[in-house]
Amino acid sequence: MNDALMQVAGSSKYADMFEFRLDLIPQPNIARLLNSTRKPRIVTCRPEWEGGSFMGAERKRIEMLEMASAFGADYVDIELNVNPRTLQEFIRRKKDTKVIVSVHLFDADLFDVTKIYKALVATGADVLKFAFTSRDAADNHLAFRFLSLAKQDAQKAVSIAMEECGEASRALYRKFGGWATYASPEAGAGVLPGQIPARELKDLYRADRLTSSTKIYGVIGHPLGQSKGVYLHNPLFRRAGRNAVYCRFPVTDLDRFMKFVAPFLSGFSVTIPHKQSIIKHLDAIDPTAKAIGAVNTVIRRGGKLCGTNTDATGALDAIERVTKVKGKRVLVIGGGGAARAIAYEAKRRGAEVLIANRTERKAKLLAKEFGVRMVRMAELRWADFDILVNATSVGMFPHVDESPVPKAILKRKTIFDAVYNPPMTRLLREAKRVGARVIQGTEMYLNQAALQSELHTGVKPKAATMRKLISRLK
Ligand code: NAP
Q1: Catalytic site residues?
Q2: Residue ranges in 123-273 assigned as alpha helix (H)
Q3: Which of 58, 271, 357, 391 has its CB surrounded by the most CB atoms within 10 Å?
């Protein structure tokens, strides 16, 4: 009970309404809960059969909701699946309290959004709520669809794709005409996957200020747990004065995402594992992305999806802030998307490129394709180079104690690590210790994000702005 009251106090700066989940509060004092805030209050007592924690008698549960109504709750949430007579009685007897009728689907494979919407409308509820477990970011479109149906009929509605991959459905509710969304309080535990803290929803996404003309951007990839793009691009949109928002879309099924959600997007960043597989979904890709064979940025131009790659320029600009690459030997460790981008751009800028990779076959193919030399990992200690680039994921969180190369080869060289989480990797620490110049992956991240932002907004962010934003990243 005290936890609930503390959560109200802690998040009242950001919340416009509060929901009291009686089923989650031990021995709830309904009057005290309702008196803890002057903002509109929703009271819910979710039964176990609808994914909640209330296990008592149904009659007792309905009595608690009726009591909440008698004590002046602004809204009471009741499930569509209660006994139909109970529901009708409840709606008939409500006085000043408005009724939210809700449907929660967990682990449902197939459902008909229109049918669920119509069943909710038929109850005569004041607010319709539909929440369902999402399995992929593509499922966000089901929430968008529900809200769009309600908007057409001027019905107040809430729709949430639960789980992490449905995060965007919470951030974008206003864009699709939703009445409200549910956020986690600032303080305390109990944050569900995909729930966005109220402070972030307001300050970062500005979710309550989005309109039907807000442009949607985002990042697609899987997993996206470490992705920091929302913390850069949302503030950059604000600074550029754009009515735009940037969300995380954890995509596993790229085909479904491109069919159902991409049509709503004005542009997006692409990360592992979709940098190559995205290409077949695009209308055009620029020559750099084509040569690299990987796209990390997609922009919509005149209705067409165009792919480009800002990793290459981002990495080489970071290196060239410290030393020019023309005429130097650049040893790239890796055979994936980052290695391809960096090797391509280093060569284009006049460097002699060498490639080494754990899977030698990949290094060999890459070296042949780009017309550069391959070096065996086992022979690295004899390699002659000026600049070493780590374009593998070795050293990345959580494997922070690993380094892709022996420290003996780092002496007095320039070392660039594309890994940016953590910013100071074991490779860079060891390189520093033996007197090498080091460049952190955050520099590349900052450059490629600035280029993406310029593509999205038409405004090039200042380096100082980017540094400030990067320094605030958690
Ligand atoms: P990717 O396409 O999946 O390639 C991964 C590379 O890492 C492959 O060469 C792989 O070798 C190698 N690798 C993975 N685990 C290894 C291990 N235990 N030992 C040795 N090699 C290993 O990934 P990517 O897109 O190229 O990204 C690579 C790194 O660059 C990631 O850490 C990513 O975060 C970083 N990156 C940073 C930025 C930035 O802005 N700073 C931008 C893009 C990427 P095999 O071929 O043998 O599997």
Answers
A1: 104, 129, 275, 311
A2: 140-152, 167-171, 198-203, 229-239, 254-260
A3: 391
